[in-house]
Structure prediction request, 248 residues.
Amino acid sequence: MNPLTVAICEDDVDDERRLIDLVERSPVPARAALYSEANAFVEDFTPGIYDLILMDIFLGEDAAPSSEEPEGLRAIRRIRAVDPNVPVAFVTTSKDFALEAFRLDVARYIEKPVTQAQVDDVLSFALGMRDHLPGLRLRSEGHDVNVPISQIVYMEQSGHYVLIHLSSGRVVKVRGTLDEVSANLDEPQFVRCHKSFVANLNFVEDINESLMSLQMFGGDWVHVRKASMRDVRRAYEDWLFQMARLKG
Prediction:
């Protein structure tokens, strides 16, 4: 089983260590990415990277409620604008934001101190959500698989096979052509940048025009045909603008 990727957003060192320990002790395999600042997390966030977000509502501020919306709550509001599906659990010292959590479709509202049972529960929930994400139903090496569309970084033609690279690092090998496999990808973030490559704009980290390539999440490079470079750059810039506007 591929481990879940969990974003732990917590600025209290002791609480962060406790969450890391509970995640590592869980029977549900998971690996954690750590954030102590809300804006940094939102800026780094890309749909499909995380299977679960554990968010301290008062991230970056005192735990005493104030008249302003807490940073953690505001961060999830911005995340929901670009990803309505990623499971979120609020971790908090306050009961005051349960209604806002409901409106943001937060999966769990956990009061500190967090227990092992609570972490096991939310990790199990996230695992179930991941297994039922919208995906491509494909045949891979003798097995029927569901490839989550939001986790596809890029696809490449390699001989008689298509290699589908996922944000988890997993590579799904499917016999067929890129045209056949990508025919059901209607989402606007996917671009055919080369006869042998389809890239997900969500996971593009840089464009190198001298190398005619896209640097993707995870460090791989995807080729771009020369005639398509201008259109690919324009599509990428438009996508970045759209994501920035949605995040506010």
In short: The chain has two domains: 4-132, 136-247. The radius of gyration is 19 Å.
